[in-house]
Every structure is written in C-alpha cells, then in structure tokens.
Design goal:
By secondary structure, the chain is α+β, with helices and mostly antiparallel strands. It contains five helices and four strands; from the N terminus they run H-E-E-E-E-H-H-H-H. It has a four-stranded antiparallel β-sheet with strand order 1-2-3-4, with helices on one face. The longest helix is centred in the middle third of the chain and has 14 residues, at 66-79. The N and C termini lie far apart (113 Å). The mean pLDDT is 80.
Length: 135
C-alpha cells in the first residue's frame, strides 16, 4: 500500500513560478484573477506563419498585462525546456504593440492604434506663373 505524505502533496501543488498576475504549475500557466489556463502541452503553439499563438491571442484580452505575462511566459518556456526564437519577440510586438509615452507600464495598446493612418494634411497649392521659354 502506497502512502502519500502531506508534504509531497503540498510540493506538487506549489507554483514553479509566480508573479502578481500569473502562476506556473507543473501542468501549465494560470492567470491568478481570471483562472485562464494555458496547458503545458499548448505553450509552444504556433500559427501557420510561425508566430507564437499565446502572445497574439492574449493581447486581445484587456485583463492581460504585457509585462507580467511576458515574465510568466518566459518562465514557463524555461521550466519546460521550450526554446524561444525571434518570432516570439515579433509575436509580442505584433500583439501588444509598444508602450506609448505616458501610458501605464501594462497599459493595453492595440497595435492598430499605433499604426492607424492619418488623413493627409491639406497644404496650400503654390502656383507659379508660366514663363515662356526663350527661343
């Protein structure tokens, strides 16, 4: 008969990593407030173009702060032996955009807000008198 010690159960339940928003468990990454869970086996999911699924997907969630998620996601990759590549950085940039001056550190800035085209400025048209060409 196998016995389970209370210390063993507590050690299995203890997070491998934790920050203000995320907990990393042996079976995956969990958002502390919402309970949103990314299974360990799904962490390395990529889109057909090679971009990482989770940074792009979670950038659509208003409750997901980029700093704490990036920190937790990196910890998860390290803990589970998943090698990051340059597409990971691009995935975060495409999804979360960049911080705009004055924004809070985890402010959600959709990339579309950063690259939205502006209407061209109307400039006065300068007219010059035609000068006859000399022969």
């Amino acid at each position: 008969m196998e016995t389970t010690r209370l210390e063993d159960v507590a050690a299995e339940a203890a997070p491998l990593f934790e920050n203000r928003d995320w907990r990393l468990h042996a079976d995956g990454l969990e958002h502390r407030d919402t309970g949103y869970f990314i299974d360990r086996d799904a962490l390395a999911a990529r889109r057909p173009d090679g971009h990482w699924e989770w940074p792009l997907h979670l950038s659509e969630k208003s409750w997901c702060g980029v700093r704490s998620f990036r920190e937790a996601f990196s910890a998860a990759l390290g803990a589970f032996g998943i090698a990051p590549d340059r597409k990971l950085t691009l995935s975060f940039a495409l999804g979360f955009g960049t911080r705009v001056g004055g924004a809070a550190p985890d402010a959600f800035v959709p990339l579309a807000d950063l690259v939205r085209p502006r209407a061209p400025e109307l400039r006065p048209v300068l007219t010059r008198p035609l000068v006859a060409a000399s022969a």
